[in-house]
Structure formats: C-alpha cells, structure tokens
Amino acid sequence: MAVSSATPADEPVAPTRADPLARDWSEGIGGPPGRHHRPHTWWTPLRVILALATVVAALSLVQKAPCVQTQWSDAGVRYSRMCYSDVPYLYTGRGLAERVWPYTDSAGEAARYPAMEYPVVISYVAWATALALEPVAPGPSEQVRAQTSVDGLFGLPGMAREVNAYFLLTAIVLLAAALGTTYLLAGVHRRRPWDALPFALSPVLLVTGLVNWDLLAVVAVAGALWAWARGRPVLTGVLIGLGTATKLYPLFLLGGVLVICLRRRDWPTLARVVAGAAASWLVLNLPALLSSADRWKVFWTFNSDRGPDLGSLWLAASLLGHPVSAQTLNLASGVLFVLGCLAVLVLGLRAPRTPRLAQLAFLVVAAFLLVNKVYSPQYVLWLLPLAVLARPRWRDLLIWQAGELVYFAAVWLYLDQTTASATTGAPDPLYLVAIAVRVLAEIYLVAVVVRDVLEPEHDPVAEERDAEPVVSTSSLAGARSASTT
C-alpha cells in the first residue's frame, strides 16, 4: 500500500515521504512512517541530524590520519592519500608557531614572515588558536625558534607533535562550525529540519572540511539564511558581514536579498541588511587595518595578481596551450561574473513567485565559482549549505557531489604527478577531464535550481514559498509588473 505524502501542519516533513530516493532507501528499514506513527520523545529530527553530523566530523579526522601519522612531512602521503590540509604548513610558515600577530607592524617580524593571504577573521582565528595552544605547546623555546630559519622550524625537536596539536585544535574549531551550520540549516524552514541532513552526511564535507578554514564562513552563511528566515534583516546583514570578513563569497548573498527586496519594493529591509553587513565587516577589519594596512591589503593584491590556478577553466585553457595573463583574466572573469549576476537578477524578477534566498544565493555563488580563476578543493563548501536548501533532493545533490569528488581525487593525483606527464610537459588528460566533470556537475545543479525558480511546482519547499499568488509568465512582460508581483 502506498504511503500518503500528506503531513499534518504541525509535524516536520519526513524526507521518506517527500523525497523519492529517500523513500526507496528507507524500504530496507521499514519504509516511510505510517499513518499512526509517533515521533520519539527524545530523538527529535535535530538531535538525529546533529548525531550523524558528529559521526561525519569524526570520520573527517580519520580521513586526515595518514598525514597526522607522518607529521605532514611526507609529500607522497599528503597527495596520494588525499589528506592534505593548509593548516599545519601555515602554522610554521606564517609566524603562528611564534605567536606573531598576523598584522604586525614590526619590521623584523614582517620581513621574517609573509602576511596571511586570507581575510581577517581567518587570520584572527588561526592566531587565537595558536595562542590557546601556547601553554601546552611541546615544541622548543621561543629563543630556539627565533634563531631558526622559517624553513627549518618544521624540523625542530618537538615541533612535529606541536604541529599536530595545532591541527587537531583547529579541527575542533572547524568541526564545531560544521555542527553549528547543521543546527542553523535545520532551523531555516520550521517544518523541514531534515533538509539539513544532506549537509550533515555530505561526502564533500567529510573530505574537504579540514583542508582550510572555510567552514568559518560557511557557518556565517548558514546563520544569515536562518536570520533571514526569521525576519531579522539587521542580523542577516551582520552575519553576511562576518562571513565576508572570513571569505569574500558571503558578500554575494546581498545579491539575493536585492532581488527579493526589488520584487517586494521593500527598501527599508534592504537598507538594514546592507547597513548591518557594512558595519560588521568594518568593525572586524579595523584591528587589522589599524595595525598594518599594508599586510591587510595582501589578501586583495594576492588574489588580483594570481594567474590561472587549480581547478579553473582558465587553467584548463592554459594547459591546452591558451595562456591568459593575470590582468586579462581579472577582466574576463569579472565581466563574466557580472553577466552571471545580471542573469540571476532577470531570472529573479521574472519568476512566477519570489525565489527563496538560498536559491538566488546558490546561483550567484555558482556563477562566481564557474568563472573564477581558481577552484581550490574546499570551495565546494561554499555551495554546500546553499545547495541543500536550494534543492533539497538527495538525487540531485549526490549527482553534483559525485562530480566534485571526481575532481577532489584528480587534483591530488595531479599534484602528486601520478597522472601528469612530468617528463613531456603535456597536459594531464585525467585532470582536464576532472575539471570538466566538476563544471558539468555544477551546471547540472544550477539548471535544476533555475527550473525550480521558473516552474515553482517543482520546488520541493512548496510550503515555504511566499504567500503571493502565482502569476503567469505572459503577464510579466514589463519590468514594473515583474517587480510588483
């Protein structure tokens, strides 16, 4: 007997009722909940999701175990076992092992260590974590460190254990951010807490969550989505500003807010979001700016000066014999991104219903990543919380993540020169194919989300749509009628 997909108004939407793939998977454990089922008094959906997220967090540490066991010093292991992380290398390479303030105004410290090439919040957290480790750090004394070259720090007695300790302490911070993200995503739609489960059980979260500090920005994005769903525009803006001070991409959520406010002609809400974002970003950047404006600017100059880099279509073109200068690349990628943003704007204004913020933000961030000059393996985390809310369907999310996993494996094999033609200098065909697979998988999910926006009856989050009436596409001939829908 088929199980009805109807759900009482006060009961969470069960994925085994709403999602065809989840329903099929559940058959082995009894199938979807029946008409007379009763929810567990303690194991609420949120607690189940957080418990599963904790298991994935633990497995993400296991995935990094080969590098931890070899003290991050075996180049073959870090690539062939795909356990690489930026964290331990930046600990000794950016002065954190000597507790140097990332925005130091000391000429000696600035000459010894390059500035952190990340926005300020990552620098703050990395430095604060090093300070927290200092009382129990097993490495040599400050005097020994100061007398040793930067390249030699990693080999000092006791430093290997200290680097591992720093990585594990950072991992605790990042995995706490992953749990916080899970909690916030589960609360975006009051009747759809299970939409956070694909994030909690995401294979790309498991393998990329500890590559860099990106999860700090991810939790800020999840918080902004949660605050927007609760009708708190100032808090939404503050969290967008926090995310932008951590990684640049959370700034793009403002594009989604703009589209929604344009449709509703809600200028006060737009102003509150923008003001909150600007204020929090400025407050967070002030300590770095006041300490050393030159070192603060390194993030911006570093990204402006870099050429085609890992994972991008621009690198693929370069490997195939069509190199592009950094200046030309900045212009080309910038123009293409602006065109992508304009396409999202038109889509949002012409949609029969006001799109959800997660849908619009996903499309803008995806447009950025598709044309950006670099796609580091952990950048998939930028899309993950947006994707699971924009298209909460297991099949589509797994198809997209399968493409991401292909690229994740290929990039480490490429860096390990396992597949590269190191002797001939010929382009690595496997790596080029992996870049194409990743891009096509991303485009697939973009196409599905665009379809949901244009044809809202396909949107799984039907009960969370705006209460405005559906308007036929033919009636949206003018921009004025579109903006007042």
From TrEMBL:
InterPro entries: GT87, UCP010361. Its main location: membrane. Pfam families: GT87 (PF09594). It is a multi-pass membrane protein. It comes from the Bacteria. The chain crosses the membrane at residues 165-186, 198-228, 234-262, 269-290, 331-351, 357-376, 397-415. Keywords: Cell membrane, Membrane, Transferase, Transmembrane, Transmembrane helix. It is found in: Cell membrane. GO terms for cellular component: plasma membrane. One of its GO terms (molecular function) is hexosyltransferase activity. Residues 1-36, 460-485 are annotated as: Disordered. Residues 471-485 have a biased composition (Polar residues). Belongs to the glycosyltransferase 87 family. This is Membrane protein. It comes from Marmoricola endophyticus. The lineage of its organism: Bacteria, Bacillati, Actinomycetota, Actinomycetes, Propionibacteriales.
